[in-house]
Amino acid sequence: MAGELSAATATGDVGQITALCRHLEFFAAHPALAVTPLSNGELNLNYRVETSRGVYAVRRYPPSSSGVCRQQELRCQHAAAVAGIAPAPLCLNNHLQVLISEFIQGGACFAVTERTIPILACTLVKLHQLGARTAVLHPVNYLQQLAKQTGQAFVSADARLFARLLATAEYYQTLPIDTVLCHLDLHGGNMLWTDQKLWLLDFEYAQSADSCLDLAAVSLNFQLSAESEQQLLSAYRKQRAHGAGTETEFSAKLALAKIIFSGFCWLWYLSLQQKLTSGQQQAQYWQQQLAEQLALQTS
Prior knowledge:
Blueprint: H1 14-22, E1 34-37, E2 45-51, E3 54-60, H2 70-82, E4 89-93, E5 98-102, E6 108-109, H3 117-128, H4 139-149, H5 156-172, E7 179-182, E8 191-194, E9 197-200, E10 207-210, H6 212-221, H7 226-239, H8 247-271, H9 279-298
Antiparallel strand pairs: 1-2, 2-3, 3-5, 4-5, 6-8, 7-10, 8-9
Helix pairs in contact: 3-7, 4-5, 4-8, 5-8, 6-8, 8-9
C-alpha cells in the first residue's frame, strides 16, 4: 500500500514477460522488441515494453489481491487520464493479470518542495473533482477487514492500539465527510515528475473516500514539516470550490486522517508480513507512526 517503491527489479522475469507479451492480443500486430524491468511495488512487477509502435508500461499483478477491484482501478485511471493527471490505461487482461498503460518518458519520483506544492495541490484537486463512480470507503469497516486479515499477527499490545485506532475512526465518521475520488496510495513511487508536470500512477486502491485521507497520505509519506503541510492545505483549499470546510475544521480533521491512514498502512503490512520481505519492518514503522499520531492527538 504505502511506502516507496522497492529497489528490487524483476530482471529474472524479463524472459517470462517477453513470452507473456506474445500471448497478449494487444501486442499481436507489434510484438515486443525490448523489455526492461522498472522499479517494482510491494506486490506488482513493472516493465517498460518497446514495440515498433511505441513504448508501454506493463504491470503484472498477483492473481489474488485482497480488496482490489481491477475494473474499478481501470475506471479510476481512465478518468484521471482524461483529466491529464495519469497515463492512459490501454488494456486490462485479468486472466493473465496484466495492465498495459501509456509510458511516461523521462519521469522521476516526485519530491515535495515549496515550488512543487502548488502543482501537487492542483493535481489533487483535479483528482478529487473527478466523477468516477466507485464504492465508498468507510474507515471503520476497512480497518476491521484489515485486522481480520492479520490472523494471528496481533498481540495484546496491538489489540489495545487497534482499539484506540478504531475509536478514532468511529469519531471521524461522525464528522462531515468530503467524499471525493481518492487515490489512497500517494507516495513518491506512485507520483511521477516530468516537464513541470505531476502524473499519478497505480490506482489499484483508488475509490471514493474523504479528501483528507489523500492529504494525510502525502503528509506522512513525504514526512512534511508543519510549515509544508500548512502550505499544502492552504493551496488545496484555495483551489477547491467547496467541500473543504474552514481552515480550523480541515486541519483538525487532517490530524485524525493521519491516525487512520497510519492504521491502514500498519495493518496492511501486518497482514502481508509473511509474503513481503519488508513486511515486518514496514509494519513496525507504521505502528510507530500510528502511536506518534495518537500521542499528538491526546497531548
